[in-house]
Amino acid sequence: MIKAILVFNNHGKPRLSKFYQYFNEDMQQQIIKETFQLVSKRDDNVCNFLEGGSLIGGSDYKLIYRHYATLYFVFCVDSSESELGILDLIQVFVETLDKCFENVCELDLIFHADAAHQVLDELVMGGMVLQTNMADILCRLQEQNKMQKAEAGISAAPARAVSAVKSMNLPQQLRDMKLPDLPQAIKDFPVSLH
Amino acid sequence: MALKKVKGNFERMFDKNLTDLVRGIRNNKDNESKYIAQCMEEIKVELRQDNIAVKANAVAKLTYLQMLGYDISWAIFNIIEVMSSNKFTYKRIGYLAASQSFHADSELLMLTTNMIRKDLNAQNQYEAGLALSGLSCFISHDLARDLANDIMTLMSSTKPYLRMKAVLMMYKVFLRYPEALRPAFPKLKEKLEDPDPGVQSAAVNVVCELARKNPKNYLSLAPVFFKLMTTSTNNWMLIKIIKLFGALTPLEPRLGKKLIEPLTNLIHSTSAMSLLYECINTVIAVLISISSGMPGHAASVQLCVQKLRILIEDSDQNLKYLGLLAMSRILKSHPKSVQAHKDLVLACLDDKDESIRLRALGLLYGMVSKKNLMEIVKKLMVHMDRAEGTLYRDELLTRIIEICSQNNYQHVVDFEWYVTVLTELTEMETSAKHGRMVAAQVTEVGARVAEVREFAARECGGLVARAAAAPPGPASKEVLYAAAYVLAEYCREETVMRESVSGLLICAGTGGGHMRARAVCVHAALKIVANLLRLYEGRNDMDAAIAILREALSGLRPLLCSEDMEVQERAHNASALLALVLRRLSPADAALPNVALSDTARPDSILVEHQHTDELEKEDNLDPINGESTPSGFSGGLIEELADLFDGELKPVAPKAQKKVPMPADLNLEQWLSHDHWSSESSSSEGEPEAAVFAAPQRDARPTAQFTPEELAMLREARRQEQANNPHYLKDDSPRSYQQDDIPIAEIALEVPLQVHTKRSDKYLLSRENSSKKKKEKRTSKKRKSKKDKPSSDSDSEEEASLGRPAVAEGGELPEGAALSDEEPPPPPDDPHRALDLDLDQPLREEELLTSRINQYPSPEGGLLTKKSKSSKKNKITDKGSGDKVSKKKKEKKSKQKSVDLMLPEVAKLHVEEDLLIEDLSKTNGKKSAKGSDEVEEAILVEPHPKGTKTEKHKKSKKESKDKDSKRNKSSSKKGKHEKKTGYEEALGISTPSKEVI
């Protein structure tokens, strides 16, 4: 069983966290922090397994992690999982993310943590490995995204336009206008017409 | 109106979406928490909107904030709202939030039961899949019970995607609701041979998880797995199967024998390292389970060890790590084969990777022998010097102590060496926890190995002197505790004792408030002084005696006002005792404390009183000192008496010895100690009788002399108890009682020269090497002979015996007749798997089937208030069933149901199709609004009927009832209400076709 999957960057900022056993939010943050401290002080050329980590699990549990550029992918698993198998699984996870985001980087995970969760849900379910075949996973994801697009249809077009404008990285003056004020201005606008 | 709505929508476009939130947080790095608090407020406003899109957006943001550590459990209701949306997009958001923030004990989870059931039965496989994924993260007992059947139905879905997810989901259901395991197991077994490899793999996964905790129940599946193992090419699944076999073999050695061959083949053939590694692991498990005597057994071990060696020598650190991990498993059963690779393990101790070093350390445990122990420990000590991280240092220390002390110091030949090692470990200054470990070793070696006591005492003297010279570190403080004890208890060398006294007293005065060793130091000093005095008296060396007394008294003086209570009290005791002796020796000595002088003007009388209490214990009579102690020496026997306090040897006590003390046959704890006198006596023993409210006359009438011996014994016991609990009472009786308090007496500081470059312990190693070389030369021929005779593990026993290992006292003291063997059973661990320890081969009983079927009705608190379990209905029938007809009917029904249940999978399929049909119907009827509740209703109505008998009439009735339901839905919008009605009917025992009654 996989007990938790954590993704955080080189500074310990969580980018994705999934706990298959309940911990409250404070505990989750502590676990992430502790795991980061354990993992981050290790060189890149040492092994990818780590025992200890007092907060999560006991002696039966292991941390298995991989470090990609700015991100750490850490799986906390018990002895029923094959160590090398989990390493492969992390690789599959990252490769799938790479396919979904086209050259995945930390920013993709920052802004689309939900999409990353969707990928993960096709890979692991309730702490058990669901699917390891990347083609299958991608196919499932595409079909679901298609459904979502079909639902959005025309009605979502304006919202998409707005979000497109927003994410165009507007120049500074636009940001200074303070977006929350915009609705007010627009609300006032029709009134003045009357 | 419409315009307003449009306007509202338009406004909402400018709400922050998730991207804006993330961007905002990144732009507000300095006041992040403030920004997030502001966002939280906005989210709360958004959640109050009716627009589901707005809510979904808010929930998506909440999910992100949850990851950052913000509690979002307050939004559980909103999350459920979003989950129940019809749109897949929002559902996805809702379920993600739920899977991140819900847990089995969440409130309001019961609200989700029907929604999830609806989603599970959704037409679109992804909706159902989404529900399964989400549910797997927060399933509770109630949800598991209520949804078990729906999930079981999904296990035979036509879509592999759903089958796969449902199979995995069942494991979570089992954990929460163990009763589901037996009914579901046949289907799970069936899935092991599913045409879809994904489903197969999922089923293997679930069975592996189940079997890991309760392997014996799954032995019957071994043939299926064996077939899978030999045919499958899916490495992922193979690994799981092989792991499963690893868990099964200990229970069935025959299986292991059968496995060896295919596994060895796999080891030779596979190119996947992960698979290779798991094969080796399982072979190891097999080898452990089958005792030797199997042909090819040694070859398999050899193969494993060889392959592991390749792994360990690999440049990939991961393989190296795993190789060592597997080695440690072999080590337990075949230490010899691993010891051959000692070089490899020792080399790994120098690895730059800490995980690998720790693994290698773990292996050392089994690699030491009498011959190489010193060498290995030396190496570890060097590592300790170099290690930077405290974790690794501490681990090293633990390992050193572990390998040396294992099996009652089996491998330690030279205890002087070991004591030196312990001293050196102390000097390395590790943490206090490990100081305690070293301290325990020092005490233990002292207690168990009589030969080394003198030496240990000398070493401890050195430790004390060093601690006195400079403030000790955390580890030394702990060790000082043991050092003071060992020093005082075992030291017999005059010089050492003489020098230690002042050192101990200095130690007692310094070292911070909470050092538990300080009080022990005081006591150790007293003990040493007593021993010294006896020595001097034997020599009749009055001057030396007076000198040591003066020194001790002056050393104790600052401690009389120590801030530590215990130190202060012991210092007072000690100085009073010593002053007593000094006054006898030189009555007008300047060193005598004034206070003590006035208080104890007549030393004899004090001693008398002291003795007096002793006597009281024995006789309850007050005969003061009689000429028993024949005055001898210059102190008139006083010194002898003082030293007697500390006489006798402490022996190791076995664990749990206290528990094993047999209860005296005549002891009755229930009995009143003294019926009438006791209470009044104890309350009025001090002070005059109060105004006798209750029973004063009785006490007056009490004839003191008329105690029966039992009563006397009781009184004495009571007094002893009281004294023992009274901190102000100087505990007296025997010297043993002092020693029980761990109070050593101490002495002389030995200056042990510190060598800078080589460890002191090394000299033992060198001398050993030299002597053993000589011995070897002499005894080669003899040895060869003996080796031939005993090729097994004892080959070097003779040589080792010649090394003259001192006797080590084993075990510990136990009450007579008690044995160590009876272990208490371990306390039951809190593990959900215990509940899953069920016999799966037994045919299903009827009740079990029923329970599993009942489960689809939510419990009263499960949202739908009505669905009382059918059993209650049945009970009512039976209660009512005075008429024979009714009971007959019931019987018929039961038997029908049974036959239905046994065909569960098929029926379930039918059920699904039916549901789908119904769904279609409801859609075409354009009653979409009522759809959700309809389906649920349908399920309720349909389920209890014996579906195997699909008569026309039955269908008709269903349709009719369905129509009625929908009508009712229109009329009464509140779901719960009409469901209550249904439940009411059911509870009344109105049987199936009579639904039309409504």
TrEMBL record, chain A:
Top-level taxon of the source organism: Eukaryota
GO terms (BP aspect): Golgi to vacuole transport; intracellular protein transport
InterPro entries: AP_complex_ssu, AP_mu_sigma_su, APS3, Clathrin_sm-chain_CS, Longin-like_dom_sf
Key words, A-Z: Cytoplasmic vesicle, Golgi apparatus, Membrane, Protein transport, Transport
GO cellular component: a single term: Golgi apparatus
Location of this chain's protein in the cell: Cytoplasmic vesicle membrane; Golgi apparatus
Membrane topology listed for this record: Peripheral membrane protein
Coiled coil: none
Pfam families named in the record: Clat_adaptor_s
Predominant place of localization: membrane
Protein transport found in the keyword field: yes
Ranges where the AP complex mu/sigma subunit domain occurs: 1-147
Lipoprotein in keyword set: no
Function: Part of the AP-3 complex, an adaptor-related complex which is not clathrin-associated. The complex is associated with the Golgi region as well as more peripheral structures. It facilitates the budding of vesicles from the Golgi membrane and may be directly involved in trafficking to lysosomes. In concert with the BLOC-1 complex, AP-3 is required to target cargos into vesicles assembled at cell bodies for delivery into neurites and nerve terminals.
Family per record: Belongs to the adaptor complexes small subunit family.
Protein name according to UniProt: AP-3 complex subunit sigma-1 isoform X1
Organism, scientific name: Spodoptera litura (Asian cotton leafworm)
TrEMBL record, chain B:
Localization annotation: Endomembrane system; Golgi apparatus
InterPro entries in alphabetical order: AP3_complex_dsu, AP3D_dom_metazoa, ARM-like, ARM-type_fold, Clathrin/coatomer_adapt-like_N
Compositionally biased region (Basic and acidic residues): 759-772, 830-850, 876-886
Ranges of compositional bias, category Basic residues: 773-788, 887-897, 969-980
Domain annotation AP-3 complex subunit delta: ranges: 707-841
Keyword match Protein transport: yes
Principal place of residence: membrane
Gene3D superfamilies: Leucine-rich Repeat Variant (1.25.10.10)
Region (Disordered), start-end ranges: 614-634, 676-704, 749-901, 917-998
Keywords assigned: Golgi apparatus, Membrane, Protein transport, Repeat, Transport
Recorded GO CC terms: AP-3 adaptor complex; axon cytoplasm; endosome membrane; Golgi apparatus; presynaptic endosome; terminal bouton
Biological process annotations from GO: anterograde synaptic vesicle transport; Golgi to vacuole transport; neurotransmitter receptor transport, postsynaptic endosome to lysosome; protein targeting to vacuole; synaptic vesicle budding from endosome; synaptic vesicle membrane organization
One Pfam assignment: Adaptin_N
Subunit structure: Adaptor protein complex 3 (AP-3) is a heterotetramer.
Protein family per UniProt: Belongs to the adaptor complexes large subunit family.
Protein's name in the database: AP-3 complex subunit delta
Organism: Spodoptera frugiperda (Fall armyworm)
